[in-house]
Amino acid sequence: MRPLLLALLLGALAGCRGYMRPGATYQDFMQDYSACEMGIGVPGGYYGGGFGRTMLANKMLTQGPINHCMMARGWDIRRGSDVYRP
Fold first, then answer.
1. Could you tell me the residue range of the domain that residue 51 belongs to?
2. pLDDT in tens, 19-53
3. Residue 43: which residues within 8 A CB-CB, separation 6 or more?
4. Are the C-beta atoms of residues 78 and 18 closer than 8 Å to each other?
5. Taking the complete model, does pTM exceed 0.85, yes or no?
6. 70 within 8 A of 17, measured Cβ to Cβ
């Protein structure tokens, strides 16, 4: 049972998407990500349940514009363990 659970967990982590830009640091990533959040009106990484929406709904509504902003800043969206995530 444990090997199966471990395999599922590792598979889920490997499938997580994040951002990658050659030569960039995590500090570079957070600076760009925060700027993109502010640019679309997300106050300081807020994904709380404002106006009756859930955290997941807020994340879904803002992630597309954030992705576009990050790509415009030279970031690629990839799966793997070598990517940055907020």
1. 19-79
2. 999 999 999 999 999 999 888 876 554 545 455 55
3. none
4. yes
5. no
6. no
What does the pLDDT read at residue 31?
96
60 assigned to some structural domain: yes
> What's the angle, vertex CA 12, arms to CA 78 and CA 50, rounded to 5?
80
Question: Residue 65 in contact with residue 40, Cβ under 8 Å?
Answer: yes
**Residue 31 belongs to some domain of the structure:** yes
CA quadruple 50, 55, 61, 62: dihedral positive or negative?
A: positive
Helical residues (DSSP H) of 1-86, grouped into ranges: 2-14, 26-39, 55-72
Q: Is residue 57 part of a domain?
A: yes
Q: How far apart are CA 51 and CA 64, in angstroms?
A: 20
44, amino acid identity = G
